[in-house]
Each structure stands twice: as structure tokens, then as C-alpha cells.
């Protein structure tokens, strides 16, 4: 049985799953971010305009960092901050895929590479959420009753950072759900043109990011938030590169374009703040 000071290790199956997921999202990000004009030939579905492709590619690459950080985490307290956002995102993306299956390169009318990418996409998003849920349940059962009882300790992040993260999380979750539920209406507030499929695909990412921020603010160990912080910083840096490449596709100087930049800056500040705290020596919950 675990003792209150004991750190629960991540089980090997969860580490392997996170590494596999990181590799898969790296491949998706490679096509989208590096070759945004070739999605009709090399990706599971045609992503247009290019700014949408590089946005999604940046999200995939930043998620790869989240999953690697989660897989390398010393404890489940840290790793779970990567696991649950990934589970939510993959589950939502499976739903988006099934809603817009006609847009995917599944038929013989498409090139061979595009067909392979589409069928692989469908298989991955059907299997990964199930595998993640099953392995997570095994991981949770390994904690033992005493360990579960202390998991809900007091958050140790500064109140200002927690409030900042809560605001960001609330915005991302609300707008992400709107893009998923009413994509045509919600896309009118996005800074560049979106189809129903791309609006929902982005909405799934925003919900995943929002969940990550919401979950992170309740962490009872400053070091445990490191995966979320790294993801936030890398996401903003990659989105900045995306803007340098295709920023002319935004409707400058409209309110959505300005708001988009403000939200990116807010995510970067919160991530940088949390990363600084995660790097400083600090005791676990109960010791201040």
C-alpha cells in the first residue's frame, strides 16, 4: 500500500502509448506544418487554406511535446496532465471524422498515399481513445486507496496564475465547444476562413488545450505542471511561425485577428510562468 509521501510511477504500458501517440502526431504535424500545400496528396483530408494546415500542424507538434513529457514523467500526477487532454482530443476528433467522413481520402479516386493516410487516420482515432481509457483505468487501479485519497490535495500554484489559467481555459473550452456544435456560426469569429470540418477540427484542439489548462491549475505539485507549460510555450512559438508564413490570410486589423494574437500571448505568458515555477525546487502538497 502507498504512503502519503510516495510517488506513483507511470506504468510501462502508459509510457509506451504516450510515445506511440507522440510519434503519430509528429508525423501529422510534419505534413501539415512543413507541407501545407500538399495535403490533397499526402494527408488524410484536404486542408485549406494553408493557414489552417499550419495551425493544425503547430498544434500536433506541440501535442507531441506534451505526450513525450508525459511519458518521461516521474509520476502519474504529472503524466495524467498529458493523458486526459489527449484522450478528450482524440475522442472529439473521432466524432468530427465520422461526421465528415465524406471529406476524407478513403476512396480510390484519391492518390495511394492520401488513401493510406486517411485509413490510418481512421484507425488511429478509433483505437487510441480506447487504448488510453483502458490503460488509464489500469494505471488508476495501481494507485491503491491511500494514494487516491491524497491526490486531491490543495493546489500549490500561485492564485494569480491559477486565475489566469482559469480564464484562458474557460475561453478555449467555450469557443472550442461552439466550433464543434455550431461551426458555421462560431467560425464567423475566427480570423480566417474555415469550413465546417476545419472549424470542428480546430474546435477539438481548443477543447483539448482548454481542458489541459483547466486541469493544470489544480495541480498539487508545481513540477507536475511541466508538460502543460512546455506545450503552451511550444504551441505559441509554432503559431508565431505560422503567422510569419501565412499571416496575410488573417483579416487584419479585425477584432478576431487582434483577439487571436492576444489569446496566443496570454497562453504564452501563462505557460512561461508555469514553466518557471516547475523548474524551481518545491515540496509536494502539504509543505509550503
Question: What can you see in these coordinates?
Answer:
It is built from 11 helices and no strands. With 288 residues, it is mostly helical. It has helices at 12-34, 39-42, 50-71, 76-99, 112-141, 145-150, 159-181, 183-187, 196-216, 226-246, 255-279. The two termini are 26 Å apart. The model is unreliable at 1-5 and 283-288 (pLDDT under 50). It is globular. It has one domain.
Quick synopsis:
With about 290 residues, the chain is mainly α.
**Count of distinct structural domains:** 1
User: What structural category arises from helix and sheet content?
Assistant: mainly alpha
- Tally the helices: 11
Radius of gyration: 19 Å
Please state the overall shape, judged from the principal axes of the Cα atoms: globular
Extract low-pLDDT stretches.
1-5, 283-288
Binned, the helix content reads: over 70%
Number of strands: 0
- Tell me the distance between the termini: 26 Å
Amino acid at each position: 500500500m502507498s504512503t502519503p509521501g510516495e510517488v506513483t510511477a507511470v506504468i510501462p504500458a502508459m509510457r509506451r502509448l504516450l510515445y506511440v501517440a507522440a510519434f503519430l502526431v509528429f508525423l501529422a504535424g510534419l505534413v501539415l506544418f512543413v507541407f501545407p500545400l500538399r495535403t490533397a496528396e499526402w494527408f488524410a483530408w484536404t486542408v485549406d487554406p494553408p493557414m489552417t494546415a499550419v495551425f493544425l500542424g503547430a498544434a500536433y507538434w506541440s501535442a507531441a511535446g506534451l505526450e513525450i513529457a508525459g511519458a518521461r514523467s516521474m509520476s502519474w500526477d504529472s503524466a495524467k496532465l498529458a493523458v486526459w487532454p489527449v484522450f478528450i482530443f482524440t475522442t472529439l476528433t473521432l466524432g468530427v471524422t465520422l461526421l465528415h467522413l465524406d471529406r476524407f481520402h478513403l476512396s480510390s479516386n484519391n492518390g495511394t498515399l492520401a488513401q493510406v493516410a486517411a485509413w490510418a487516420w481512421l484507425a488511429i482515432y478509433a483505437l487510441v481513445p480506447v487504448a488510453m481509457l483502458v490503460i488509464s483505468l489500469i494505471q488508476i487501479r495501481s494507485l491503491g486507496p491511500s494514494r487516491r485519497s491524497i491526490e486531491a490535495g490543495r493546489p500549490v500554484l500561485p492564485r494569480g496564475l491559477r486565475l489566469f489559467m482559469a480564464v484562458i481555459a474557460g475561453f478555449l473550452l467555450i469557443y472550442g465547444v461552439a466550433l464543434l456544435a455550431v461551426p458555421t456560426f462560431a467560425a464567423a469569429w475566427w480570423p480566417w476562413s474555415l469550413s465546417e470540418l476545419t472549424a470542428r477540427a480546430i474546435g477539438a484542439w481548443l477543447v483539448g488545450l482548454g481542458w489541459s489548462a483547466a486541469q493544470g491549475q489544480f495541480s498539487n505539485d508545481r513540477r507536475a505542471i511541466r508538460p502543460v507549460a512546455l506545450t503552451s510555450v511550444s504551441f505559441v512559438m509554432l503559431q508565431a511561425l505560422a503567422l510569419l508564413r501565412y499571416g496575410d490570410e488573417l483579416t487584419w486589423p479585425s477584432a478576431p485577428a487582434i483577439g487571436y494574437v492576444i489569446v496566443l500571448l496570454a497562453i504564452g505568458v501563462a505557460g512561461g510562468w508555469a514553466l518557471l515555477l516547475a523548474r524551481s525546487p518545491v515540496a509536494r502538497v502539504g509543505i509550503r
